[in-house]
Amino acid sequence: xxxxxxxxxxxxxxxxxxxxxxxxxxxxxxxxxxxxxxxxxxxxxxxxxxxxxxxxxxxxxxxxxxxxxxxxxxxxxxxxxxxxxxxxxxxxxxxxxxxxxxxxxxxxxxxxxxxxxxxxxxxxxxxxxxxxxxxxxxxxxxxxxxxxxxxxxxxxxxxxxxxxxxxxxxxxxxxxxxxxxxxxxxxxxxxxxxxxxxxxxxxxxxxxxxxxxxxxxxxxxxxxxxxxxxxxxxxxxxxxxxxxxxxxxxxxxxxxx
Amino acid sequence: xxxxxxxxxxxxxxxxxxxxxxxxxxxxxxxxxxxxxxxxxxxxxxxxxxxxxxxxxxxxxxxxxxxxxxxxxxxxxxxxxxxxxxxxxxxxxxxxxxxxxxxxxxxxxxxxxxxxxxxxxxxxxxxxxxxxxxxxxxxxxxxxxxxxxxxxxxxxxxxxxxxxxxxxxxxxxxxxxxxxxxxxxxxxxxxxxxxxxxxxxxxxxx
Lengths: 257, 206
Prior knowledge:
The complex is a heterodimer. Chain A has 9 helices and 2 strands; from the N terminus they run ααααββααααα. Chain A is mostly helical. Chain A folds into 2 domains: 133 residues, no CATH class; 78 residues, no CATH class. The mean pLDDT of chain A is 85. Chain B has a single domain, classed as Arp2/3 complex 21 kDa subunit ARPC3 (Orthogonal Bundle), CATH 1.10.1760. Chain B is globular. Chain A: It is found in: Cell membrane.
């Protein structure tokens, strides 16, 4: 359990100063190119590029490791099964099972791609304030109702999490220790029920307060984005790098290389 | 394990899932008016916070999905609420990614809608004491259907992925059981403390 519900990655430096719209777009472009790669060599280069971005964003290794670990459970199942289930030239034999080199490459590429995309996403988008992300998405053409919902949810998550911490502390004061038993599940069920009841009372108050301030079904975004020369430069630089990545991948596919 | 990482699925599966999610989202957003946004936001935030709680299960611990329960309470609004939660988890926790967001949303939102269509109307019909069972069914069904869909999307990505999908499928029943028990308790609690929540939930999206 972290102290804040949405952990904020403390980043620093040149990437963090870039326009939020550019960072969201860049993360998307990076994911598109990386997922489309066909060769382990170019995918490794993509992971290198993502690592470079993470370093440039000044992310701490500990934060990164924790986020990358989040996806390794799923990865473990794939990496352990894929070499044995993909047909192709034999890599090694394990009893009656035969692992193929094609399966090994497939598993390796999935591992590299997933980690590269998460790294780039953390460096470019994870370092944004959640509210800035919501506003950037709104400016990039995400429907108004959806950005409203996103922005309000982000705000409410903080408030409700504070309530949760209070309730959980009260349970701890009564010597509650979670275990695998009925008692724990019931206590947690009541905890979540209480969170819901209190937050709905909060929703009523929120709606009343918004009506008092003349809410007519629209919030106005108050951010004023500034597109700077550095942003154009960054966009061009990233486009060149991604283009090089795609070109490298294409080159690896040519016969005789 | 309900979040499929980036780079696993093939392009047709990603595009198909994305389009289906956009379709569901369009319907859900049209049905959602601005007046109900604060309520939807507060509920989705409460469920987001609840899903962060790690529930011990034997040697490990699990997080609840709560998508079945979301469907029960929110109806169609569960679709954008789930998308928002998944987008935040992708951006700030490293679960999933920007391109699989559509598939991941579909895998969690479809079971929520099934619960909204099948189980929510029953909330108004059964005797109040029996509502706990509907809660259990929503929790159990939400997780099992999500597990089935995750395995199916994986299997659709190619023959080599089938065994992994089967292994994954085996991990879901215990999760579904815990989720069912906790959801049943939540519903029982609401029944005693704020029964109007369950009855409005039963009426608002038929």
